[in-house]
User: What shape does this take?
Amino acid sequence: MVEVRNRDLTNPFHIVQGQLRAAVDNLQLGEDVYEFLKEPMRVVEVAIPVHRDDGRLTTFIGYRAQHTDAIGPTKGGIRFHPDVSLDEVKGLSMWMTFKTAVMGLPYGGAKGGVICNPGELSARELEELSRGYVRRLAAVLGPELDIPAPDVNTNPRVMGWMLDEYDRVRGQNTPGFITGKPLVLGGSAGREEATGRGVVYTVLEAMKRLGLDPRRSTAAIQGFGNVGSHTAEFLHQNGVKVVAVEDVRGGAMNPDGLDVPALLAYAHRNGTVKGFPGSRNIGTEELFALDVDVLVPAALENQITSTVARNVKARIIAEAANGPTTPDGDDILHQRGVFIIPDILCNAGGVTVSYFEWVQNTQGYYWTEQEVNSRLERLMVTAFQHVYDTMQERRLTMREASYVIAVHRVAEACEARGWLRLPTTNEIPAPALHLIGRDRPV
Assistant: This one.
């Protein structure tokens, strides 16, 4: 990752530029491809005034980054968090481009965020903020332009408010404007669990390649929000012993295995896993150093640094979060032989079922949860196989292989539109890529 060596190794935007640089060089695509894709095509900053319950007026800053629409409308979540920054949103939009590309979805990448602490906002204030964000950005959003979705600290209720505001601005009903919305407003069955379910599909595929028996394997999970909790649930259902989990308030650890159904109920009642009966508290540093088969970072970026990586004992790291491993941490894990399922593959279940939701909205015909889950499994397994095959054929890491596939597809789309001219000399064969509906029915 030459590009980031002298840059901030914790900045998502710098990190993904380095990953792009490495893939372009590996594919011998030339400097023009890197130059064209290294920045989002559009970034919008907005000021959102909110009338507080105590009579004050507070202005919040929000962003929307749209990386490229070479393959289709841009797609990506909206997060509400105090640490949202412009570079974070730009980097995440690029990750979304490569995530949709490695899955073969007809999208580009986008990401949005608002600098705020939603825990300090009442429900009415949160609704006003959500509606204000859409009003400010309505001109650059839409089912054929840019399709938002939930992310950190946003959920179906927030998506419902945003959909309603967009419909008010446009003067029409547009269910395909946003995904991850309530079922009654055109949401998809299985969407809430999709990211965690997709994580587990990829974990099971990795276990097959490494000769691990799920029923004799253990796992630890950092982060117990929507993704982490559903990952725990589905790992448990497949026989994996979940021995430790952690959220922002604390952790729960039992070397004999946690009672996951009871833990889920406890976390729902108490808002944390800390204090779960029969467990002891565990911190982040200890959790990452546990001797488990599978480690799942399901929180925020930059959790596995070089210092943390030296203590990791897990055989598999499943990146349920976006960008949880820093480049220097990634290098150390590779040297130590840890099998990493990269984020743009591992956590792609959410955007894949968001695609299904968008398709259902367009058709006006809705699928059963069983149909959604079956289609999701098929696409996740196929994408994993293609990344794994590319890794072996080109002697790359799983992360490098996933970017080779993704960047090649995006570059081809840019060339097909006449935006770029790819090299015709010294070409190497394109990596295998599954496109929906092309070589295997959805």
Observations:
- The first helix runs from residue 12 to 27.
- DSSP finds 15 helices and eleven strands in the chain.
- The radius of gyration is 21 Å.
- The mean pLDDT is 94.
